[in-house]
Amino acid sequence: NVVFDAVGIPSILSEAVHIASVAGRVVSMGFANYPADIPLLEISSKELGIYGTRLQTKKFTEVIQDFPMFLDNVDKMISHVMPYSEFRHAFALLEDNREKTGKVVLTFGD
Asked: Does residue 46 surpass a pLDDT of 90?
């Protein structure tokens, strides 16, 4: 689980820490020059990694151009696709059948 804060508003960074899963990562891409109220207990108890980036590697265009080459790998990570109304079943799969369950995608709409 990776949560990106591309806004740079302190409350968004705090929310990113809150919604990140255990052992997740939070990436801040904001350039605000003021403090953020970040719940330190939540970072420690969830064992989160907090990262900052300036997006200065000048690789964005290259990555976007090469992205289609990796779509097959992404599809292999997804083991189940189901409507969001079956979210309880999705969570049960993740909890009870970890060996055979990869990413579960919940769909909304058609």
From this structure: yes
